[in-house]
Amino acid sequence: MLRPDEAKDRCAALLARAKALGADAGDAVYLGKSSQSVEMRLGALEGVDRSEAEHLGLRVFVGKRSATVSSSALDPASLDELAERAVLMARGAPEDPFAGLAPEDMLMQGTPADLDLVSDAPGPEALRQTALEIEDAARAIAGVTNSEGASASYGRGVVALVTSHGFAGAYEQANHSRSGAVVAGQGSGMERGMAWRSAHHGEDLLPPAEIGRLAGSRAVERLNPASMKSGQMPVVFDPRVGRSLIGHLVHAISGSEIARGASFLADCEGHRIFAPGITIADDPLLPRGMRSHPFDGEGLPAAASRLVEDGVLAGWLLDSASARKLGRRPTGHAARGGGGSPGVAASNVTLLPGRESVTDMIADIADGVWVTELIGQGFSVVTGDYSRGASGFRIVDGQVAGPVAGITIAANMKDMFARMRAADDLEIIQAINVPTLRIDGMTVAGD
């Protein structure tokens, strides 16, 4: 894997090849990653994996025609072929009036901020011990009957981007992950529980034994689930699944969906879509944040923003192409992989906590459900209709009761956003973070 400066040089050399062959403009991206992981199962070594991968993506423009190509072969002959193929493809592509690089006057200038994304690698023995400790703690929980294994891993990656109109940047990041999954019960009554954490620094993770205890406890808590009657009732979303609701919001306000007229929020910019008090922030410059980055996929500087302010939708997430279609300026939310043109993505998204405790939030619920797992992909970004299989726990007279499974929860996302309440138990541990959420009036289908 190349070092950041080497990766920038490789991208610049690839762009120079394309320009020499007739490209008017372009950009090149390098993505490199190395990783090692250890998996333990039933106290024995299940597997050790080491991998390294490199990828170069090239986008070129010939007038208003463009093409994007990529390769994992980085030798000079392969890069010559990559540049030649890209220019030939661009010449044969249809014209796109919205094609082009990001506005030059918006490119990031100066040295990027240090976001503290790099940390040292643990050795293979340390990874093995971590995985073993996770599994031992999970299997020690009364009621756990089998293990699906525990793993610990470390990875390191480099991202570099160079454009033909003046931007060159690169950064490095590390990733530590720990996970465990076990089974409780016997025969047809078995239930699975898992827990995992990921961070740029190992010290930011839960201790291995705590991850194991979480996995084991979750499996045992789900034993002997019942169904429940159908009806409209409050639904409480555990943060593990509540973050998916904000993921749907991000999808619905991406410029590509708005430009196509394919979002249920297309007419909601500047309007209140959440209850007063709900604020959702996006911060790509969060130190040690899981999706922190100094610049976006087109070379624009990353900057913190509010997606929702006191319930009001602030605007759209725009890359350069969607911004041109909408007659606007990009917002620094371009995301770039190695194999295609930039898309749109948020970074570290956080629904800020409310003022009520979880206990107070559920105190007045006579009959409801606490959802800890969602099944299926039942969401339409066009209409906002939402319907997912779910499992979790009954809420009866303000108390969490026994486990439930085999239910479906449904509503329209606009109504869900408008009725959403946030508790005060926010933890910043993933790319999308939310506290416990309550939504009244959802339709629950059981027996």
From TrEMBL:
Concerning SUPFAM superfamilies, the annotation shows: Putative modulator of DNA gyrase, PmbA/TldD
| Coiled-coil annotated residue ranges, if any | none
In the record, what terms sit under GO molecular function? metallopeptidase activity
Q: Which domain of life is it from?
A: Bacteria
Q: Where is the Metalloprotease TldD/E central domain?
A: 121-223
The UniProt entry, under InterPro entries, shows: Metalloprtase-TldD/E_C (IPR045569), Metalloprtase-TldD/E_cen_dom (IPR045570), Metalloprtase-TldD/E_N (IPR002510), PmbA (IPR047657), TldD/PmbA_N (IPR035068), TldD/PmbA_sf (IPR036059)
The Metalloprotease TldD/E N-terminal domain covers 27-90
In Swiss-Prot or TrEMBL terms, this protein is called: Modulator protein
What species is this protein from?
Croceicoccus marinus
